Amino acid sequence: MPSIESNQLLLAAAAACEDKKAEDIRILALDPAESGLTDYFLICNGTNDRQNVAITDEIELRLKREFGVYPNSVEGRRQAEWILMDYVDFIVHVFSAEKRAFYGLERLRKSATTISVADLHAEVKASLTTRRLKKTPAPTAPKKIAVAKKSSAVVKKVAAKKTTKKTVSAAKSSKVTATKTGRKPSTKK
């Protein structure tokens, strides 16, 4: 059974397709007995090759920005007639209208169940509500703030070391200069 997180990713990908005006968006829930490959197919088509690339770019950008997830592989982006994005739990197929009619993935996967975006959204919402009732903490995305704090602390340490090195090297150079000229080194700072 697919996890809530993978369903949320699938919903975000479908929303990205809608935002880029993809046509005939369908989600196929694959039969687990028939397909050990993945849980879902997200299938849509664009009106031209440029739109197909824009759809896949938006999916990749949104999933990266919101969830920190990248596709395992992307195929067909150069020709842009059938672009396939593999996210393990689901696979996105963005077709040109002609290629979609020719290959007919919906026909090939007769045992697959077509799920609407609204149904999937309701399922995710119900699962999240059940999780809250059970008081199970939801998995959180890695905190980027902690990384930023660490990196600023490292920058401060490096800056402090550089300042210390400059002070030490300035003191050494004044001692060397003073001994060459025969004067006492100054102790002022």
Describe the structure in brief.
By secondary structure, the protein is α+β, with helices and mostly antiparallel strands. It has helices spanning 4-19, 49-67, 97-103, 105-108, 117-134, 144-181, and strands spanning 23-29, 40-46, 73-75, 82-86, 90-96, 113-115. Helix 1 runs antiparallel to helix 5 (117-134).
What do these coordinates show?
Its main location: cytoplasm. Keywords: Cytoplasm, Repressor, Translation regulation. InterPro entries: Iojap/RsfS/C7orf30, NT_sf. Residues 166-189 are annotated as: Disordered. With 189 residues, the chain is an alpha+beta fold. The protein has six helices and six strands, in the order αββαβββααβαα. It has helices at residues 4-19, 49-67, 97-103, 105-108, 117-134, 144-181, and strands at residues 23-29, 40-46, 73-75, 82-86, 90-96, 113-115.
Please state the CA-atom Rg, rounded to the nearest Å. 29 Å
Poorly predicted runs are 144-148
Give me the side-by-side strand order of the main sheet: 3-4-5-2-1-6
How many strand segments? Answer: 6
Number of helices: 6
Query: How do the helices and strands follow one another from N- to C-terminus?
Result: HEEHEEEHHEHH
Q: Mean of residue pLDDT?
A: 77
Overall helicity? 40-55%
Give the distance, in angstroms, between the N- and C-terminal Cα atoms. 70 Å
- Classification by helices and strands: alpha+beta
Main β-sheet description? 6 strands, mixed
Dominant shape: globular
Question: Beta fraction of the residues?
Answer: 15-25%
